Each structure stands twice: as C-alpha cells, then as structure tokens.
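ingest -> validate -> predict -> emit
validate: passed (alphabet ok, no gaps, 149 aa)
predict: started
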Amino acid sequence: MMSAKPEGNVREALEDRDPNNLNQHIQVIWDDIVGEPEGARSPECAWRLSRACFRNARDICYTALAVLLAPPCALCLGCGFACLAFEQIWCTAPCLRCVKIYFASVRTMVRSCMAALVVPPMEAIGHICRHIRINLRRDAPDEPDLLVV
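emit:
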C-alpha cells in the first residue's frame, strides 16, 4: 500500500536512464534511419517485416552486448575515474599549490626588479614622449613635420 509511491519514484528514476541527455546524437529508431521516398516504395509487407527485423535485431543485439560487456566496461570506467580522482586529489592539486606558493615569492622578486630596473627608464621615455604633438590637417601644405622636443 505505502510502497506504491516509492516504487513509482524508483521506476521513474530507472525509466529515464539519460537524464542529462548525453546520448541524443545516437538515433536508433527505424523512422530516423530508413525512409522511402514517394517514387521508391517497397510492398507494405516487406516494409513492416523489415521494420520488425530491425527493431528485434537491435534490441536483442544491444541486450546481449549490454549483458556481456556493460559490467566489464563499467568496472573499467569506475577504475579509470577513481584513478583520475586520485591523481587530481593527491598529485595535481598539491603540486599546483606548491607551485603557487613558490611563484608568489618569485612574483614579488620580479616586481621589485621591474620597479628598480624597468620603471625609471620607461618613465623617462614617457616624459620625453608626452611633449610630442601631431596635428593632422587636410588643408596643410606639403611640408615635412618638425619634431620639437
């Protein structure tokens, strides 16, 4: 009596096996694969028999492959994702954290060197270049521009 509702939820969860629509690109429905145009029609019995053969062969073959190969594939995928998670958690993340800590001091050193060696000449060049004025006029005579510093 009370188990009807939980069974319904379990049944709904089992019915929708692709809730994130991961495999929408795989169409294995007869109408999406085979279609006869108006000028080339097979007899109705051949069409129905072909459709039934296709559907039954697809279902039987997929079921056989799923029963035989899905568990080993799932085992391999589970191990693969476990190794990937282990590598990310225990190797990559700590290494990235070490690099981040190390390069924080390198960044401070590079900033100090840039402030001492690069900034003063660039400020001097900027001070010189700030007095350059360029005027573009369409009615100007063909005289060379003079650079006054």
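The helical segments are 4-15, 30-33, 44-117, 119-129.
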